[in-house]
Amino acid sequence: MANEVDTFRLLGVDTISSTVGKAWADVARTAAQYGPTLLLALALVALYSVVFWGISRLLHGAVRRVVPPEARPITHRSLRLVLRLTLLMLVLVSVTALFSPLAKYGPAIFRVYALLLLLYVGWNVLDFLLHRQTVRWGLDASLELLLKNVVRVVWAMSGIYLVFEQFNVNLLPILGGLGVLGLAVGFAAQDILANLISGVTLLLDRPFRIGDWIRVEDQEGQVSGLTLRTTRIRTRDNEFVSIPNKDVAGAVVVNLSAGGPLRLNVMIGVEYRERVDDVRRVLLEVMAAHPKVEKQPAPLLLVQELNASSVDVIMRFWVSEANIASYPVISMQVTEAAKEALQASGMDIPFPHLQLHIDGAKGLEAILPAALDRPALPRREEH
């Protein structure tokens, strides 16, 4: 029996049993002390949720009946935010009031609630004033976005500072202590800082604006957004691509929309025996017949190069700024129509030919006479 007791003590079973017993006794004592209060808090949360659900249904229904359609989205969004903040405030104030150690935080929570409402209303007023002022100054959407982002960051930082002040937490010493850490983070986040600086440069230099069609390296699309970190474009396949600003600032940016109408060049080859005037007449009719090809400036057909087996001509025409989004499809349609028109006029589009000369091929003597006896294919008459 003594050996058995020593084994339990050696394995720590007695210590574990004692620790578990004390922990269970503490849990039972805490549950007996705070259990009814916790159940009451849960009941209050459920009651508040049901009441606010009913109030929300009533208010949103009133908005749909009273508010004009164009103002309903922002009204619903604002009402939803206010109701959720109010519900959260009531729950936190009620719960802290039930638990004596947390009761001192009730007034601070109410002040934070009022502060958040003021910050939200103040930001909407600032957003309205900024938009009106940028319109008055004649700034484009890119600079307006930069100004709003800067003001938003300052506004948010001020709000965070004021919220912590309600709980008697001074952030200034903490921010001062983070100065050394900020240097280390700065070295580790060089790419992020480079994107921020490049974003400001792009917004000030303005090589493109929101809504322009641009080409950056192998990406081409319409600019849908420009933040302090990335340039966002939407491709013709409706794919949204985010390009780091430092890559855009260091690359060649082709703006397809800045000059208004866009000129397209479609190359096609014809045989040497065809007269250029005849080809020009046929292909000018093709370009004039396309509904998205501009009449002015007039389309042109020019000889680009005399290749080994073809005369390469360029169909040069313009499309309006509204059709820049679909210019690849327009080029394909013009190319297809040009092929059909040339063939309908009896003109051939050349393709590579290979002539094979065989000298001393005795192994083919048995089949060459049979091939030579075949009737020749009829040739097209020359016009």
Summarize, please.
This protein has 383 residues and is α+β, with helices and mostly antiparallel strands. The chain has eleven helices and eight strands. The chain has three domains: 32-168; 191-255, Roll (SH3 type barrels); 262-344, Alpha-Beta Plaits (2-Layer Sandwich), CATH 3.30.70.
Task: Tell me what you see in this structure.
The chain has 383 residues and is an alpha+beta fold. Helix content is 59%, strand content 13%. The strands form two sheets. It has a five-stranded antiparallel beta sheet with strand order 4-3-2-1-5. A three-stranded antiparallel beta sheet has the order 6-8-7, covered by helices on one side. A hairpin with a 5-residue loop joins β3 (230-234) and β4 (240-244). The longest helix has 54 residues, at 13-66. The mean pLDDT is 80.
